[in-house]
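Quick note —
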Amino acid sequence: MRGTGRRIVEESRSLRVPDILAAFAKAGYSGSAIPSGPRTATVGFGPPSQRSGRRVSFRLESTPQHFGGVRWWFVCSCGKRCTALYRIRDGYPFHCRQCNGLAYRTQNVSRSTRWLLRADKLLARAGCDRADGRYLRPKHMRREKFRRLVGEAETYDLAAFATLLLTLRPCLRF
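Predicted structure written out below.
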């Protein structure tokens, strides 16, 4: 496994733009009614009785969409726009993924594990279960698509197995 030893995004506390827009909507604002341009928002965390001491302020910025409306972004302290801010521990400020040095879970797995995960995903799209070893086509799926998905999954399985054998090769004696 080639893990980088970095902290994982999925294990960090996150603050996402859709959550903030939902809070604005709950307070009576709609996403399009919020004036565009840079804004500062403040959010309280924890139970309502403890929120007064646990407030966080952050900058919001909007960009126009091609077919109308706006897209909202957080602005990290590094100046980068992002849709989520992360905090690695309580008491630490929220920053973007790069500033916190966070990695996604799949960035910390080996190549063969990544290929096995991709094969599992393809089999799930084909409506198959790896556990029973038989691949039965769902009624609604076209035969060609089913064959293609299962074929790609088997290719990734073989590649993962070959990579694993190459990794273990120095340990094997023939």
